[in-house]
Specification:
Layout lengths: L1 H23 L15 E4 L2 E4 L4 E7 L2 E6 L5 H10 L6 E3 L4 E4 L5 H38 L5 H34 L2
Length: 184
């Protein structure tokens, strides 16, 4: 019984961490290396994450500097950034790429808030699925006679409290991200 609950908690914890990572890739008008996490660059015929072929730094609030370790791929990096959904214009001086992060328009901000809400809802669904799986396993254990009916009820309550706690964390993260996006 304890094993089922701890397994469910571990899955929920990973889901919330994954959401935080997803939120980090959403543009907020501020420069962040995490914005470039999804960008892949053709490197020796393989799509390689940008952070594995270059150093990404943020010297100013609205500027990202990308310094490739291999100068021959600077053009490929520039193209990959232009093709991305970031809607930014990279400037290449032959040694480094500078990406100025423009302030978001009100329309884009609302769009990003909608995307963030969608990400959070998908995460809540994942948490509820984990709760359902844990409850199914507990019911199976009760049916097999491994735990009593009272233990089943207690364990289901524990799983529900766990779910509520992680859903609250998701809501908190969403609230913070909304503030960050709408903050002018």
């Amino acid at each position: 019984m304890e094993n089922i609950i701890s397994e469910a908690e571990e899955r929920m914890k990973k889901a919330v961490e994954a959401l935080q990572h997803e939120f980090n890739t959403l543009r907020t008008g501020r420069a962040s290396p995490a914005l470039f996490d999804k960008i892949r660059v053709e490197y020796y015929g393989n799509p390689t994450p940008l952070n594995q072929v270059a150093t990404i730094s943020v010297p100013e609030a609205r500027l990202v500097v990308i310094q490739p370790w291999d100068k021959s791929i600077i053009g490929d990096i520039e193209k990959a950034i232009q093709k991305s959904e970031l809607s930014v214009n990279p400037n290449n001086d032959g040694k480094v790429i500078r990406v100025s992060i423009p302030p978001l328009t009100e329309e884009r901000r609302k769009e990003f808030v909608k995307i963030a809400k969608n990400m959070a809802e998908q995460n809540r669904v994942s948490l509820r699925n984990t709760r359902r799986d844990a409850n199914d396993e507990l019911k199976k254990a009760e049916k097999d006679g491994t735990i009593s009916e009272d233990d089943l009820k207690r364990a289901e309550d524990d799983v529900q409290k766990l779910t509520d706690s992680y859903v609250a964390q998701v809501n908190e993260q969403l609230e913070e991200k909304e503030k960050e996006i709408l903050d002018i």
